[in-house]
Automatic annotation (TrEMBL):
Pfam families per UniProt: LUD_dom
Natural source organism: Streptomyces paromomycinus
Xref: SUPFAM superfamilies: NagB/RpiA/CoA transferase-like
Domain LUD, first and last residues per copy: 108-212
Protein name as catalogued: LUD domain-containing protein
InterPro entries in UniProt: FTHF_cligase-like_sf, LUD_dom, NagB/RpiA_transferase-like
Coiled coil region boundaries: none
Amino acid sequence: MSSRDVVLARVRRALADVPRGEGYEDVPVPRDYLRVHGRRTPEERVTLLAERLAEYRALVHHCAGDEVHLLVMRLLAEHGTQHVLVPPGLDPRWIAAADPVRIHDRAASTARELDAVDSVVTGCAVAVAETGTIVLDGSPDQGRRRISLVPDHHICVVRVPDQVVDSVPEALERLDPSRPLTWISGPSATSDIELDRVEGVHGPRKLEVVLLSQ
């Protein structure tokens, strides 16, 4: 008996009590788990998000709406950015004061061209306070998934408190599963067998999150 035969036999045994013709959509799945752990005010929710982001080694900045262009300009200058990638729907006021050459998000851009970009500035779809996670869904202010994965420096603007939810279940309710979702919890990092942390392997080495008060 081959390994394939063994696997198929186990599948048949596991499905022995399933009526013929029954599909996964025919069986209701109970979703009585906790959706949120505790109750928080909007201010507490934003504070928790900032704490979780910092734990993941993201750099967190707070600013008001009329200050965001100055903050983004300073962050790009401190990084030494000469070329910044800009999604087509990004609020132009956010980078109005910035000096770097603006590179537009184009389908024809190659990985080599994107790798030559110093920074990218995006918005986000939603942020999860309990996990310190930011979700991008490819909307015009966020651009294609790859632009947030190839450049070494990512500045992500989160509108608070509107875009911040407590938990992952709450975030899922706001998201369209048919869109290209990218879940970000801190800068890209991995560890080898000796637990030596290496950043920037699968995405940006440096993640800066701007919590924009509205």
